[in-house]
Write a structure and sequence with these properties.
Blueprint lengths: L15 H15 L5 H17 L5 H16 L3 E5 L1 H6 L1 H11 L2 E4 L6 H13 L5 E2 L6 E3 L9 E3 L8 E3 L5 H9 L3 E5 L6 H5 L2 E3 L3 H15 L4 H10 L2 H23 L1
Parallel strand pairs: 1-2, 1-6, 2-3, 6-7, 7-8
Antiparallel strand pairs: 4-5
Bound molecules: adenosine-5'-triphosphate (ATP) and magnesium ion.
Adenosine-5'-triphosphate binds next to α2, α8 and α9.
């Protein structure tokens, strides 16, 4: 087992948190959860996190609160787990699943049975009881999708009304929307097709954002449907995405001013 605690990072490094997250992914790669392409996808996320200021901003917190309300209102909510998410926040996935009664399904872009099993084992190690997407006899295909992400569980994503798809592939996000599902995503890139297509786009690092999602879910878990519906009705995803782009813009402008 590759152990991230064994990595010696200088404690005063300005990017310490970012480096620690990166090492979780490297550990996930060495332990068979993450593919090489996943490391690169993480790099794209890191770049946007840098531009966004590496903090959970107001627009992210609003999307997170709305996501919690949507999960509670759902009939069959599912969290779609890939290798990166399984490496970055397995304990949080299980906790969120328990609080919001959301089922966990493993779904991979780069399919490989061994990796799927390693991801499921990691989730089980962190307390997951039921993991969908594992049994071949439960597999269904989403028509019109080329990648292996077309393979979904008949008792999970296939019949879900709400799907939480962190770090998602744009093609599938569009397809799931066309099938009438409500989509929640974590994506640091406000320009990606996933961000632009989802109903609730959480522009935040999933490592920070999922902790906030757990916190707010606990806080509103006893609220009635009227209260939850008001949160959802008041939310404007396009405006929220625009606010994140303005944040990038402001951060860039601040740096130009510093040069004057
Ligand atoms: P799309 O397919 O939606 O058009 P893409 O092809 O640009 O997007 P993918 O590689 O399919 O991107 O998906 C990875 C996405 O996940 C990227 O948009 C990246 O910014 C985002 N991402 C990577 N790491 C994180 C993270 N830790 N938290 C949140 N988002 C992340
Ligand atoms: Mg993509």
């Amino acid at each position: 087992m590759y152990d991230i605690n064994a990595i010696n990072l200088p404690k005063n490094h300005p990017r310490l948190k970012s480096l620690l997250i990166r090492d979780k992914l490297v550990a996930g790669f060495k332990n068979g959860l993450v593919v090489q392409q996943g490391l690169m996808a993480h790099g794209r996320g890191e770049a946007f996190d840098y531009l966004l200021g590496e903090k959970s901003m107001k627009y992210a917190k609003l999307a997170i609160k709305t996501a919690a309300a949507v999960l509670f209102l759902a009939k069959l909510p599912i969290i779609s787990v890939n290798g990166n998410i399984a490496a970055l926040c397995p304990r949080e996935i299980v906790e969120l699943s328990n609080i919001t009664n959301t089922k966990i399904e493993v779904n991979l872009f780069y399919h490989n049975e061994k990796r799927k099993q390693a991801i499921a084992n990691n989730l089980k190690k962190h307390g997951a009881k039921e993991i969908l997407g594992m049994k071949i006899e439960s597999h269904k295909h989403i028509k019109g999708l080329e990648s292996s992400r077309k393979v979904v569980d008949k008792d999970g994503i296939y019949k879900a009304d709400v799907v939480l798809v962190p770090l998602e592939d744009g093609d599938r996000c569009i397809k799931l929307k066309q099938l009438g599902k409500t989509i929640i995503t974590f994506d640091l890139n406000p320009f990606s097709r996933t961000s632009q297509t989802a109903d609730i786009t959480i522009i935040d690092n999933v490592v920070r954002g999922i902790i906030e999602l757990i916190r707010i879910s606990k806080k509103i878990s006893n609220k009635d449907d009227k209260y939850l519906r008001k949160i959802v009705n008041d939310f404007d995803n396009k405006k929220n995405i625009a606010l994140s782009i303005l944040q990038i813009n402001n951060n860039l402008l601040k740096n130009i001013i510093n040069y004057e």
